[in-house]
Specification:
Strand content: 25-35%
Oligomer: single chain
Order of helices and strands: HEEHH
Number of helices: 3
Distance between the termini: 33 Å
């Protein structure tokens, strides 16, 4: 999964990005450009169906987080094409592909 989670209380999406990155990866980030929003529905065996309304942002790494990383999360770095193939949630893979297309299209003339 990409780092993420819910917005707590009165925090903004950008504040949630900073908090969730610190909690789940142990990294301090600054939110950048908004990439896209996606809604995904899924169900797991023996649990009720769920849905997530997710916002995806580019981030800039600024260093290690001040607080501890959640013990049940592992930080894994991989190439974007490999990440798209490995991400558990389709919405995460789609959002990453949107971000990559934006990056490439800035350097290529449209057909």
């Amino acid at each position: 999964d990409l780092p993420g989670g819910g917005v707590d209380g009165d925090e903004t999406e950008e504040q949630a990005v900073v908090r969730e990155f610190a909690e789940e990866t142990g990294l301090a980030v600054v939110p950048g450009k908004f990439v896209t929003r996606a809604i995904q529905y899924w169900s797991r065996k023996r649990t009720r169906p769920r849905h997530a309304n997710s916002a995806f942002y580019r981030v800039r790494l600024t260093g290690p987080a001040e607080g501890p990383r959640e013990p049940d999360h592992d930080l894994v770095w991989m190439r974007p094409d490999r990440a798209i193939a490995c991400l558990r949630h389709e919405a995460h893979a789609w959002a990453l592909s949107v971000a990559l297309r934006e990056e490439v299209s800035a350097d290529v003339e449209p057909l």
